[in-house]
Amino acid sequence: MGGSGAFLRARSAPFMFSGLPFVEPYDKQHRAFSILDELFSPSQKYQLLVYHADSLFHDKEYRNAVSKYTMALQQKKALSKTSKVRPSTGNSASAPQSQCLPSEIEVKYKMAECYTMLKQDKDAIAILDGIPSRQRTPKINMMLANLYKKAGQERPSVTSYKEVLRQCPLALDAILGLLSLSVKGAEVASMTMNVIQSVPNLDWLSVWIKAYAFVHTGDNSRAINTICSLEKKSLLRDNVDLLGSLADLYFRAGDNKNSVLKFEQAQMLDPYLIKGMDVYGYLLAREGRLEDVENLGCRLFNISDQHAEPWVVSGCHSFYSKRYSRALYLGAKAIQLNSNSVQALLLKGAALRNMGRVQEAIIHFREAIRLAPCRLDCYEGLIECYLASNSIREAMVMANNVYKTLGANAQTLTLLATVCLEDPVTQEKAKTLLDKALNQRPDYIKAVVKKAELLSREQKYEDGIALLRNALANQSDCVLHRILGDFLVAVNEYQEAMDQYSIALSLDPNDQKSLEGMQKMEKEESPTDATQEEDVDDMEGSGEEGDLEGSDSEAAQWADQEQWFGMQ
Fold it and tell me: Which segments carry the TPR repeats (predicted)?
């Protein structure tokens, strides 16, 4: 009992000094104040409380830090009252000391930071709202704008972003914030016009604003052209941020080849780049380059594991390795680190859909659409969920809305045609839509795949072969080579079909359908050899059983290792 009593006494106050009387635990806060009163002046006590709270913040003890910041604000309030009541003593030493005290506004900002880390955004807004408008610094207005935007309060968010720009006309994040809230590019540019005219070498800024105005209105082609013109200027040549934006725009436009090239260029210029690497990892995984995805994930984890991107990249590796429970876990971890990560939401949604949990997947895709209303892949994921649950009507409504909202481009036309293919009544409409899409972009892979699917249903194999050969003239894609192989088999061109399957497997060794097509052809070409092999297998049955037993034990071992990732 003596030991535990000593421990309680030791824990009863934040500062330990010898010779202090025994303090019961329930009275520790009161006693802590009295100790501070005895040893320090009121201003020193305020400083110590702020320093204590700062140290707790850096140790990630956010709730405890909020408590100490609150105590500090109470102490500052009491200090202000006593300074008003006491007459001036003429002590010049006290004036500099009071000027060095931590700012009350800065303390409130740190409290808001704690609340955001605790995901208590309403409390953060309440704290910052309590600061008079004239006393709000640019960083306080910036945090308020971001919090309002996250809460869906667009009008106060726009007001706060504009206040940031009034104080700091070159705050690019505030410009992007306004553009993301549908403020006209011309209006945003007018707020920076004075500084552009007064500061040399800033003529690029108005073009930059124009480019990102196109980005946020979903006009990908004009955004790409404008950013490319910016990139050619000497001041912004090899700018990593611009290259990342360009890569993301190519991805949104469905030009995966150029997207990967720009990501690789940005990565070479900045080996520690994290932003956008989740999209880059996803594109590599789609191409079947799983070894490159694994290496990318390891490199990102070595840079930082406190960002969503490394977890998303590892999740993409698991997803395309058909380890959906692991992909689900990694996607959830990424969302925990950054709830606004669109790629993490898409990863988790896709994993849930493939695990048969379609309704949960729909929730994630809807949240992704809310965060990125101009990204077509968010809508594609949701429509795939509707089709998987036979909700063709909902899928059709969503596809029509996307078509009207994002405009009639090759991607939206193909998405609408995909839904039309599910209903026998709208087959002709699907054909018309796909023809329009291919007229706009003859090399758009998704449109080619869907048109080939339609021709296969109609058994127009020669037309399908011509379509696929034309699409493969300037690009090489695993899926296109595989479908061409299937069409060649249908017209008895077995040797060339085998060549196409081989090319597909060289591009993606994990493509199961190409492997199945090749194996099927081998069996059809040499049925006698297959019969002889079966006879030999029957004669060596005991040896085969031994191999199978080894295989089962290995599978069980992997299952044990992966069981942890099934946790949610």
Answer: 342-375, 478-511
